[in-house]
Specification:
This is Tat pathway signal protein. This protein has nine helices and 34 strands. The strands form eight sheets. It has a nine-stranded antiparallel sheet, with no helix packed on it. Strands 8-7-12-11-10-9 form a six-stranded mixed sheet, with no helix packed on it. The chain has one domain (75-662): Neuraminidase (6 Propeller). It binds MU-OXO-diiron and calcium ion (3 copies). MU-OXO-diiron (FEO) is lined by residues 162, 256, 271, 361, 381, 480.
Length: 670
């Protein structure tokens, strides 16, 4: 198998390496998705909203089996007039809607509220008090959520800052002196990563602003102290000089998408964390090779001209006598879902290792039911990686629910069978099937890894990708965001693209990833057996294939979707069901003709009607969307814009949130 092309593309911000060299799926040529019609289950939107927001229990999850539309179900029709594709360096929204930018990178939100300096001279300490760069996943927590309320005028907006543009961040880009980086530049870069918690409020004129001085305003960065929780806590392979008992680490990095938990906290995903570490050793452990850790790092933080431990730790070479004397294991403390409690500003973020260690794009929770396990789904966004599901061991009770529910449970990986069925394959050594597969694999090559077994379940979770290879999961075309339909319970995932699918030396097509050299991506969905999210089997189909005008999605020989000027798109990435059951699709793909700038579309999950709602400025990806509970204010993130957006007088592009409202104050999308 060809070596993965890590180095030449390393500075490509959207680059995700191919590091899965297993060949799990046989070659199949399938030209169209084969789908079975199924009855979509209905439930009350109110109950679905309460469940999604964690706001109460009456009726939650107890969806009736009535397949007819009941009077209390809002229509998910798409009511606006589609906007055309655009090459303008501005946000485009439909007639009757307005947009304004909010919380651009550098906005002061805490501490001494240091002003943003357009000349790039803000210090590292100042960046620690300002909104980070490269906005991504975002959620709005109503300020009264803990008290059972659902305010749409005041809340905590929590968002990820996935990575940075060094050229915009500093006065003159990244600098080096004698091959070392000025430590304060590195401090600023680390601070521009992570998560922002911003207390925001709408005034009587409808204008949103930061609540200055609020104790909730907070920055979590690549240097914030965090706990390791779950089965990997205390495992010897996480011992570092900083945490000789392997229970703590510092920072969260490359936070892509996120998921709000049913108990009012925020899970930030760690996606392409491998790029922050450098390993100069002759050989690397499988915990690094299966992710693509290289001999140099993306931003050279380990080259800071300071002996401070906070920088030294990015060098994961073997330097000391034991693991407690160096940072050889630092990268093993990354690759998790990180729980942040925005309502408790002093709380320490918790890395929830039971959800696995991989390139987490995000996480999406199924609606919770009192007394039943908590279930969530997470995709691993790299070519030929997998989709996972976690089912908690302990039952959910609204009164006592908390992050502990994520520390014990079973992690499964998805196998999409060619007949439209699917199976969740346990990655638990206590599962006889998985144990047998592991035992059989010992002494063999699993991809590029000479497999010599797993020490324990912590070792399995640390090497989740390897475990999934052994389990026989289906390699996917880069799983990005997931979303659960609040009405039907169906789970949707974007498969953004896979330029290597079917190429010599790589996995061929399979029914769930049926396009060779899949440049434009598709959206897959499934129903768990019995609409029970803890089930170990499911039925899947393809919701839509992205592409140019005329791209068809065919169901039972009938063309269900044929894309037109109103809805061509490529590389679906962000995905979110709003509280009325409309599906929002965001793109991070080619901005060449005919697609032009990246965009967001709205879809009716039942009819598959899709319309373009929003187009971003030049060069950006549109990623991260949420609304207030009344779906009358929408927050959409613009990441890595190109030119001087949003301020034509500022030479630096600034990632920002865009607030979208309907001019008549109505429900967005209706
Ligand atoms: Fe962070 Fe998969 O995009
Ligand atoms: Ca991206
Ligand atoms: Ca993404
Ligand atoms: Ca993407």
């Amino acid at each position: 198998m060809a070596k993965h092309d890590l180095d030449p593309n390393y500075l490509d911000p959207n680059y995700e390496p191919v590091v899965n060299h297993t060949e799990n799926t046989p070659f199949h040529q399938v030209l169209a998705a084969r789908m079975q019609r199924r009855t979509v289950m209905k439930g009350s939107v109110g109950a679905a909203l309460a469940s999604v927001m964690g706001l109460g229990l009456a009726g939650c999850g107890s969806d009736s089996n009535d397949s007819t539309t009941s009077s209390n179900v809002s229509s998910t029709d798409i009511g606006f007039k589609a906007v055309p594709t655009s090459t303008a360096n501005e946000v485009v929204v439909p007639e009757g809607y307005s947009s304004e930018t909010f919380l651009p990178w550098g906005t002061p939100i805490t501490g001494s509220y240091p002003d943003y300096k357009p000349d790039g001279t803000n210090t590292g300490a100042e960046q620690e008090q300002q909104v980070g760069m490269h906005h991504d996943g975002v959620h709005f927590f109503p300020i009264d959520q803990k008290a059972g309320g659902n305010s749409s005028t005041e809340g905590l907006l929590v968002m990820n800052h996935e990575y940075i543009a060094q050229g915009a961040l500093h006065a003159n880009g990244a600098t080096y002196v004698n091959d070392m980086r000025p430590a304060d530049e590195v401090r600023k870069e680390i601070a521009a990563h992570g998560v922002s918690v911003v207390h925001i409020k709408r005034d009587t004129n409808g204008k949103w602003d930061i609540v200055f001085g609020s104790p909730f305003n907070r920055r979590i960065t690549g240097n914030t102290e965090m706990d390791i929780r779950g089965p990997v806590r205390g495992y010897s392979k996480l011992i570092t000089k900083y945490s000789p008992d392997a229970t703590e680490t510092r920072g969260t990095l490359n936070n892509c998408a996120m998921g709000p938990t049913p108990w009012g906290t925020y899970l930030a995903a760690e996606e392409n964390w491998h790029g922050y570490f450098a390993n100069g050793d002759e050989s690397q452990p499988r915990e690094q090779t299966r992710h693509g850790v290289g001999s140099s790092s993306r931003y050279d933080w380990e080259l800071a001209d300071s002996a401070e431990d906070q920088y030294v730790r990015f060098n994961v070479s073997t330097l000391g006598a034991t693991a407690a004397d160096d940072y050889r294991n630092e990268a093993n403390t990354y690759g998790y879902m990180v729980e942040i409690d925005p309502f408790t500003p002093e709380s320490k973020p918790q890395k929830r290792t039971a959800l696995g260690r991989f390139g987490h794009e995000g996480v999406i929770f199924a609606p919770v039911k009192e007394g039943e396990p908590v279930v969530c789904y997470s995709g691993d966004d790299s070519r030929f990686e997998y989709i996972y599901k976690f089912v908690s061991s302990k039952p959910y009770y609204a009164a006592t629910a908390g992050g502990y529910l994520l520390d014990e449970g079973t992690l499964y990986v998805a196998r999409f069978n060619d007949d439209g069925s699917g199976d969740w394959l346990s990655l638990d050594l206590d599962n006889a099937d998985f144990k047998a597969k592991v035992d059989a694999a010992v002494g063999t090559m699993v991809g590029d890894v000479a497999f010599d077994g797993f020490e324990n379940q912590a070792d399995v979770l640390l090497n989740t990708r390897l475990a999934a290879d052994i389990a026989g999961a289906t390699t996917m075309d880069r799983p990005e965001w997931g979303a659960v339909d609040p009405i039907s319970g169906q789970v949707y995932f974007t498969l953004t693209n896979n330029s290597n699918r079917g190429k010599e030396g790589y996995d061929g097509v399979n029914a769930a990833n049926p396009n060779e050299i899949n440049r434009t991506g598709h959206i897959i969905r499934w129903s768990e057996e019995g609409n029970d999210h803890t089930a170990t089997s499911f039925d899947w189909d393809i919701f839509v294939f992205a592409g140019e005008q005329g791209t068809e999605t065919v169901v039972d020989d009938e063309v269900i979707v044929s894309l037109t000027d109103d809805n061509i798109f490529n590389s679906p990435d962000g995905l979110w069901f709003d509280y009325n059951g409309r599906l929002w699709i965001q793109t991070d793909g080619s901005d060449a003709a005919p697609y032009q700038n990246n965009m967001m579309l709205a879809a009716n999950p039942e009819t598959r009607e899709i319309k373009r709602f929003f187009v971003g400025p030049v060069g950006c990806e549109v990623t991260g969307v949420v609304s207030t509970p009344d779906v009358k204010t929408m927050f959409v993130n613009i990441q890595h814009p190109d030119g001087n957006w949003p301020d034509s007088n500022d030479p630096r592009p600034r990632d920002a949130t865009v607030i979208v409202t309907k001019d008549d104050g109505g429900v967005i999308g209706a």
